[in-house]
Write a structure and sequence with these properties.
The chain has 354 residues and is an all-alpha fold. It contains eleven helices and no strands. The radius of gyration is 29 Å and the shape is globular.
Amino acid sequence: MTALQGFVQRSGRGFARLRGVAASVAVSLALGGCGVVNNMIYKTTGDVMQGFAKSHTVPYLLESQDLAMGCAMSQATAPLLMSFGRVTSEPDQLAVMLYLTSGACIEEQAREYELQGLAQLRAMSAEGAEDAMIRQKRAYALASERYFKGWQHHNAFYGKPDESECPDFDEDLDEFVYFAGLLTGLQALNAEIQSTSSIGVPKNVGSTVARATSCLDNDKWWGAPMALRATVWAMIPGALPQGEDAFHRLEIADRQGEQAGVRISHVFHAMAAMNRGDTERLRGIIRSHAESIKETPSSDQWRMVDAMATQLIVAMSDRMWMENTGHRTPFGQLGTFWDDQPEATEVMDLDDLL
C-alpha cells in the first residue's frame, strides 16, 4: 500500500511538472504568436502609411503654398514615418522629401540668425553679432546633416549617380523626387560650407549632381535641371565645359521657369551671381522674379516649389537690404532697392495758365 501511494505521489509530481512545461510552452507560443501578429500589423501599417504619404500627402503639400505648414509637418512626422523602416522596407523616396523640407526649415532659421547678426553689427554690438553668427553656424550644421541624410536615401533608392546609369522612372513624382534628391546633395555641401564644420559630405557632390541632371527632361521640369547644372559650372572652378556659357544657360532656364510658373531657376541663377560677386545681376534676377510672380501665377501642381523659390529670393533681398539699411525688404516691395531713383513724372507748367 505504501509502495502504491509512493508511486501515485511520484506520478502526480511528474504530471504536475509536465503540466508546468506544457503551460510554459503554451505561454511562449502565445507570446511568440503575439509578436508575429504585431509584426504583421506593423508592417501592414508601415506599407499603408508609406503608400498614402507618396500618393496623397506629398502631392497635397506640393500643391500648397504654406511653407510653414510644410515645415511643421515634415519635422513632426519624419521620426514616425521613418521608423516604419524598422518593420518594412526603408521609405527612401519619402525620406528624400522629408529631409529636404526639414533641412530647408533649419536653413531658414540660419538665415534669420544671419540677419540678426547683421543688425547687431550695425548697432555696434560685437557680442550680439558673434552670438548670432554662432547660432547661424549651428543651424547650418544641422541643416547639412538633414540634407545629407536625404542625399543618402536618394542614393539608396536610385543608386549612386556616379556609379550607375539613369534610373527608369515609373511616374512624374518619381522623377521629381530624383530631382529633389539631387538638390539635397548640393544643399548638403553648401550648408556644410556655411557651417564651417565637417559633416562628412563628399566634396565631389557638386560635379556628381551636375552630371546626374542629364537624366531629367529639362523642358518638362521648367528648365531647372539645366539651371542646376549651369550653377555648378559657374561655381566650381574648371567645371565649365568648353564652348558653354553658364549664365546664358541660366537666362534661358529663367524664361522657362517664368512661363511654367515654377521659378526655381531664379534661385540657382541668383546663387551663381552671388558667388561671382555680381551685385547688378543679382538685383536684376530679384526684380525679374518679383515681376514674374505678379504676372504669372504659380503652377497648380507645383505651388510649393514656386513658393520655396520666392522665399529664397526674398531671403537674398533681405540680406542686401539689411546690410545697407538695417532692415529687411519692406513688405510688398520685393524687387525694389533702397537706392532706386524715383520714376520721373510729368509736371504741368502752371505759369501758362496764369
